[in-house]
Each structure stands twice: as structure tokens, then as C-alpha cells.
Design goal:
heterodimer; A: mainly beta; seven-stranded mixed sheet; about 0% helix; B: 11 strands
Chain lengths: ~110, ~120
């Protein structure tokens, strides 16, 4: 099974900061990585798919890069609504879908 | 608009069974892969199972193989998860989710339901 190692597990930041979250796959997953935002008690929301494609309705301050085994999610200027938990996921085959452990972004 | 509504959660004793349902609307259900994802209290997301749009493949995470069965009713626009031999480690909110692109399993989970809580306890 492909493992996704996400870091950091917790990130403290302030409004206006630029932050980056990293995900490393245990083997190449090409560009098949998504990023989700989850707020407490709510369902996850898709932000980025295909490593770098912004989901419709997601703010443009979110961006994703990477391919192969290294992926990053960047928030260019943190807004109060962005404090949440973020997950990466690989979906590189019909038979393999794995989430990272999550990054809690706190003030 | 796309809607996914889970139901069937509740409190169940260890070793017993439970069936979850996910009613879909607002899209052509039979064109999309569907997933179950769970989240134990205070923990991260765990992918559980996926079923192809035409039921030709069903894939499970290792910890539920042989105990859980994912299925779908394309005529009734409903996804199911039959869970048996439940243990306290299966306690979680269970989400159903739809793939983003039709006709493929290599797609992110674009739409999610609100989740249904399963508690396994004596």
C-alpha cells in the first residue's frame, strides 16, 4: 500500500502569513494527489486535485504543486476562515486511495 | 445540486452488523465511483472502500476486508456499506463521497455527505 506522510502535524500561524504543508508518498503517484480542508464537525471539502488544479469555488490563495512523491499545499495569505485541518490524499489507481495524517492549522 | 445523505448509523454491540446507506441526488449516480471514508473520534480521515460506477470492482482497506461489503443500487441512486463483525475500532463517522470525474476511479472525492456516526460498544 502507498503511504502518505504529511508534515507538519500542527502549524501555528497568523492572519496574512504564507504557509506550506508537505506530503510525501512512499512511491510515485504521478500527479494524483488531492488536498482537502476540514472544519470541526463538518465533511471534508476538496481544494486541489491533480496536484495543482484548484477546485471550483476554492479561493485562489490556495495552490498545490508537485509530482511523483513530493507535494505541497500553499496558502498565500492566511485568512481567518482558513484555520482548519488539511489532508492530502493519493488516488493513483483504482485500487489505492490513502490519506495523509492531517495538518491542524491553528492561530 | 449534488446531494449525498448518509443514514443507518447508531450504537451497535461488538460482533454485530450494521448497514449504512447513502442516498444520492442531483447527478447521474451510475456514472461515478463512490467511496466510503471514516473518521474515528478525534482522528484523521481513513479511506474505507470504493466501488466502480458499474460495480465491476470493489476495493477495501485492509482492516475491513472480509467484514465490510460495499454495494450500490444504480436504479435507486443509493450506495451501501454492509458492516459485520464490528469492533470498537470501527467506531467512527462514516462519510460517503463521489468521485469528481465520471467513468474513472482515478479521481478525487469531489462531493461528500455530512456523515453518519457508528458507535460500537457493549
Amino acid at each position: 500500500d502507498i503511504q502518505m506522510t504529511q508534515s507538519p502535524s500542527t502549524l501555528s500561524a497568523s492572519v496574512g502569513d504564507r504557509v506550506t504543508i508537505t506530503c510525501r508518498a512512499s512511491q510515485s503517484v504521478s500527479i494524483w494527489v488531492a488536498w482537502y480542508q476540514q472544519k470541526l464537525g463538518k465533511a471534508p471539502k476538496l481544494l486541489i486535485y491533480g496536484a495543482s488544479n484548484l477546485e471550483g469555488g476554492a479561493p485562489s490563495r490556495f495552490s498545490g504543486t508537485g509530482s511523483g512523491t513530493e507535494f505541497t499545499l500553499t496558502i498565500s495569505s492566511l485568512q481567518p476562515d482558513d484555520f482548519a485541518t488539511y489532508y492530502c490524499q493519493q488516488y493513483s489507481s483504482y485500487f489505492s486511495h490513502t490519506f495523509g495524517q492531517g495538518t491542524k492549522l491553528e492561530i | 445540486q449534488v446531494q449525498l445523505v448518509e443514514s443507518g448509523g447508531g450504537v451497535v454491540q461488538p460482533g454485530r452488523s450494521l448497514r449504512l446507506s447513502c442516498a444520492a441526488s442531483g447527478f447521474t449516480f451510475s456514472n461515478y465511483v463512490m467511496h466510503w471514508v471514516r473518521q474515528a473520534p478525534g482522528k484523521g480521515l481513513e479511506w474505507v472502500a470504493v466501488i466502480s460506477y458499474d460495480e465491476t470492482y470493489r476495493v477495501y482497506t485492509e482492516s475491513v476486508k472480509g467484514r465490510f461489503t460495499i454495494s450500490r443500487d444504480n436504479g435507486g441512486d443509493t450506495l451501501f456499506l454492509q458492516m459485520s463483525s464490528l469492533t470498537p475500532e470501527d467506531t467512527a463517522v462514516y462519510f460517503c463521497a463521489r468521485g469528481g470525474e465520471p467513468w474513472t476511479g482515478i479521481t478525487a472525492a469531489q462531493y461528500w455527505g455530512q456523515g453518519t456516526l457508528v458507535t460500537v460498544s457493549s
